[in-house]
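Below is a filled-in request sheet from our internal design queue. Each sheet records the structural input a requester submitted and the sequence that came back. We keep these sheets so that new team members can see what a complete request looks like end to end.

REQUESTER: design group, bay 2
PRIORITY: normal
MODE: inverse folding
CHAIN LENGTH: 205
BACKBONE (tokenized):
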């Protein structure tokens, strides 16, 4: 394979990570992804290096295996490295469908799942390590939907976003409309229900 700059491999890594998510494997499910789709063909360590853009050269056999387990057609990796797009050869839903046969495979992600994915990408962009991100997500209980103003504030701080941006992801597009957020399980017992209003946002910011 030809030599490509590190930026090209980083772009490939981002696209592979996104594709893995499309196939139904979350940000902490690389091991499961390899076990179910690439057992005995590739290691979790190699997948991690690829998705993190940590190397700039792989054997052709590894590239072919990667294209197969990510459901890309042959030549897709080189296309991405050249600034193009991959070609998918399978639907991006089977893993989620097999996890829960009662779930509609075409159903959109939950609010909590969207928040978790967004937090992961934003924190990666800000230079956090994967361990730091996973620790934060676990501490916040994501992909459970955030339920308190304090949780919204913590997510905003970690991602460098505003509280209004986080609220928009929660479906609050107009902050003039009240939204009641119930106390999260780790909040104090008997804590009052918090209501998002312009004044509370100003007080929190």
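RETURNED SEQUENCE:
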């Amino acid at each position: 394979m030809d030599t490509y700059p590190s930026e090209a491999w980083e772009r490939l890594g981002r696209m592979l990570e996104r594709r893995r998510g499309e196939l139904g494997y979350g940000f902490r499910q690389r091991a499961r992804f390899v076990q179910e789709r690439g057992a005995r063909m590739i290691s979790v360590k190699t997948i991690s290096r690829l998705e993190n853009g940590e190397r700039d050269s792989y054997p052709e056999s590894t590239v072919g295996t990667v294209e197969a387990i990510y459901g890309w057609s042959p030549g897709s990796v080189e296309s991405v490295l050249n600034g193009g797009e991959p070609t998918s050869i399978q639907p991006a839903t089977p893993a989620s469908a097999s996890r829960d046969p009662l779930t509609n495979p075409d159903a959109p992600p939950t609010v909590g799942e969207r928040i978790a994915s967004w937090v992961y990408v934003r924190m990666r962009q800000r230079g956090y390590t994967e361990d730091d991100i996973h620790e934060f997500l676990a501490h916040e209980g994501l992909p459970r939907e955030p339920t308190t103003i304090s949780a919204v504030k913590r997510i905003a701080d970690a991602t460098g976003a505003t509280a209004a941006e986080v609220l928009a992801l929660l479906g609050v597009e107009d902050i003039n409309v009240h939204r009641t957020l119930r106390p999260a399980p780790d909040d104090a017992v008997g804590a009052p229900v918090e209501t998002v209003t312009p004044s509370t946002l100003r007080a929190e910011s």
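SHEET NOTES:
- The radius of gyration is 20 Å.
- Residues 93-107, 174-180, 182-205 have pLDDT under 50 and may be disordered.
FILED BY: M.R.
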